[in-house]
Automatic annotation (TrEMBL):
This is Zinc finger CGNR domain-containing protein. SUPFAM superfamilies: Jann2411-like. PANTHER family: BLL6575 PROTEIN (PTHR35525). Residues 198-221 are annotated as: Disordered. It comes from Thalassobaculum fulvum. It holds the Pfam family ABATE. Gene3D superfamilies: Jann2411-like domain (1.10.3300.10). The lineage of its organism: Bacteria, Pseudomonadati, Pseudomonadota, Alphaproteobacteria, Rhodospirillales. InterPro entries: ABATE, ABATE_dom_sf, Znf_CGNR. Residues 162-205 form the Zinc finger CGNR domain. It comes from the Bacteria.
Length: 221
């Protein structure tokens, strides 16, 4: 039986997320065009570890980890739901990066996740900056709320047209193109870009060799 979620400390202060945080989360599954893809979220603990690395409050992540140890079935349910929400986020932005529109099911799943996340209702000053102050139960939705906020901010903001998907068909990484020319094609030139250049060079050399062999075969003796 699932335990009722305890209340988190009142007045949690959450910094405003980067608008591409949702893309970072979507990319926790990568090399999506490969078989198999590389999955980094394989268990509930992986999800908490990722949230901690993305800047979630250490006290909250530690408390949620203890709670999930007491309620492993609830942890698995929350984890599986969040992975489905991650796939919806990926589907929305991959479709937009390809010049289309998101599937209705993906957009609806994102809206459901946003409705479940705590609202940003109050601003608070912290360390000379402003952040969001929220009142919410100690639950995964509280810790991961910045992911869904960032997805909404990116979809409604001015940088949506900068969302790209790596042109390497084995990669399919999502990223924001902040280049001046706005024509970046690769997640990283040192990885996918150089691989593509090397492949094109190989194919040109191969075609040249085939052309030479064909010409030699047709030349009269």
């Amino acid at each position: 039986m699932s335990l009722p979620p305890p209340l988190a400390p009142p007045g949690i202060v959450v910094p405003a997320p980067r608008d591409d945080l949702c893309l970072d989360f979507a990319n926790t599954r990568y090399w999506r065009g490969s078989d198999p893809a590389t999955e980094t979220l394989n268990a509930p603990a992986d999800l908490i570890d990722w949230a901690a690395s993305a800047g979630a409050d250490p006290m909250l992540t530690a408390a949620l980890r203890r709670r999930w140890e007491e309620d492993p079935e609830g942890a698995v349910r929350a984890f599986e739901r969040t992975v489905r929400e991650r796939e919806a986020i990926y589907g929305v932005f991959a479709a937009l990066a390809a010049g289309g529109g998101p599937a209705e099911d993906d957009l609806e799943a994102l809206n459901v996740a946003l409705a479940r996340a705590p609202a940003r209702g109050r601003l608070a000053a912290r360390d000379g900056r402003f952040a969001w102050q929220i009142a919410a139960p100690l639950a995964l939705e509280t810790i991961l709320a910045p992911i869904f906020w960032s997805a909404g901010d990116l979809l409604t903001g001015t940088r949506l047209g900068r969302v790209r998907q790596c042109a390497n068909p084995q990669c399919r990484w999502l990223f924001l193109d902040d280049s001046k020319s706005a024509n970046r094609r690769w997640c990283a030139m040192s990885q996918c870009g150089n691989r593509a250049k090397a492949h094109r060079h190989y194919m040109r050399r191969k075609q040249q060799a085939e052309d030479r062999n064909e010409q030699t075969a047709t030349d009269p003796l």
